[in-house]
Amino acid sequence: MQNLLDFTLQLGLLGSGDSTTGTMISTLMYLTFIAFIFFGQKIQLYTMLWSVGGTLKKLDFLRTEVKKLTLETIKEIGKPKEDPTPKLNSLLEHFLISPVNLDPAGIVAKFDHLLDVREDKFKNDVKMIAPAANKVQINNLENLVESSLALNTIYRIVRHFYLLSKKTSSFYLILQLQMILPLVMQEAEALQGASQAFAQGQPIGDGIGALVASKFMLNKKKRKVKKDVVVSETKIDGRKATVLKAEGPGGNVGKPGDAVKQIIKEKKGKVKLIIMIDAALKFEGENSGEISEGIGAAIGGVGTEKFKIEEVASKYKIPLYAVIIKESIQDAISPMKKEINEATDKAIERIKALIKENTKKGDTIIIAGIGNTIGIGQ
Amino acid sequence: MKSSDLNKGRTYFYIVILFSLAVLAYSLWILYDSYTAYLEGRTGNFYMGLVIGAIGIGLAISSLTTLRKRIIMIQTMEPRTVTVEFCNKCQYKKIRKFKKGDYVHKKTKKCPQCGTNLVISEIYVEAKKKS
């Protein structure tokens, strides 16, 4: 130790050592300073590339883990005779080309058609690689493959920009990528959580709307309406309520837009109120599970279902109310948290209050629980 | 998580702890050494030892605190999915670990109190409580 200290002193760091060594160190420091002035951005570029490269490795690990889980679940549930890996690999590269929007008139129907085709193709492919799976399991597996696909896509996009920045030595390209990477990683980690939920068939945060609707449907007669949606008739404070949600307990969002349209047609437009319940993104600082109410169609996705509901509600001049349960994007695709689950009863109270305030006894209303109904029956 | 992954993680934690403790011990020794240097009138060595020792202690403590924070975070984040079985007749409630195949509103076994079917009323994730 003494030698080390003496050596450090000799280097001249404290000003009492050999002057030649001290001058050398001072010159080295000046040179470093000058190098930083001229090559600072380059050094920063390589530091960023190194940091993004590390994150990319983590992303690769996440996507590999989820793919492994997907394969294991397919083999366990579906009992395929052949190796499902090549088919799964092809599904993970699957894409959808959006319809042309140069002339936007009629684009919703075109989009809707493409989404139907995509969903059918996905379901059929999953059925093919998991022949022993039942309907509920097919839906869960489809969701699992979707989350694996999403992670794979995120990885491919991040890798694309990383390699492009490396190739072009573009500081600004890698800077933008590094800036958004924490958010991308949050979503990727949430997708990994979601894949666990899909493999197990657990309810996810997004299913809160469906969960609320299912509470109204308990012990009531159910019937199936348009594509994967179930409907029950019930009475709430003397009002006739038609409650709908996607058919569970398999991972499914159904087509609530078509269902609402069909119900309104069946009732010949004599509906006094539509209430939609869905999970919605919270702002930072807000608590998960908080409830808000407002006006409009509370439904996410590309917008086709929202369009249908808005269209039919405006055609028959039916007031459209929304009750939302706040949660983060990570909460929405992760297994349902306790605080979100606890919001169910509060949301039911809000819905009942809305009905009381806005309708009279004997009126007909529609309650639509929106969201992925995985792990939620009816 | 697989047991091999858990073992890897554990080994990493032990290595970091051992390394941090070694740095801490060495830094304390440097501090002691600098104190002796001060008593002997070697002021240069005293200041040098003081600075190096303080930096070493700071780094070791920072590393150990970060590790502790991570352990606490992992423990709190480790999800525990529970299933709540409920009897609508006698209000009997049973909370158990989630099993594959459970879903909300699924009828399960008979209620031990009144014999009607228990229904799964809730499935949710709760963060593991801090011990």
Note down, in words, how this protein is organized:
The complex is a heterodimer of chains A (378) and B (131). Chain A is 59% helix and 13% strand. Chain A is α/β, with parallel strands linked by helices and 378 residues long. Chain A has a seven-stranded mixed β-sheet. In chain A, β1 (222-225) and β2 (229-236) form a beta hairpin. The longest helix of chain A has 60 residues, at 19-78. Chain A is elongated, with a radius of gyration of 28 Å. Chain A starts with a helix and ends in a 9-residue tail after the last strand. Chain B is an alpha+beta fold and 131 residues long. Chain B has two domains: 3-77; 81-125. Chain B is 55% helix and 21% strand. Chain B is built from two helices and four strands; from the N terminus they run ααββββ. Chain B has a four-stranded antiparallel β-sheet with strand order 2-1-4-3. In chain B, α1 runs antiparallel to α2 (43-77). The longest helix of chain B has 37 residues, at 3-39. Chain B starts with a helix and ends with a strand. The mean pLDDT of chain B is 85. Chain A binds chain B through residues 1-2, 5-6, 8-9, 13-14, 16, 193, 200-203, 211, 214, 218, 248-249, 334-338, 340-341, 375-378, and chain B through 29-30, 33, 37, 44-45, 47-49, 79, 81, 98, 100-106, 122-126.
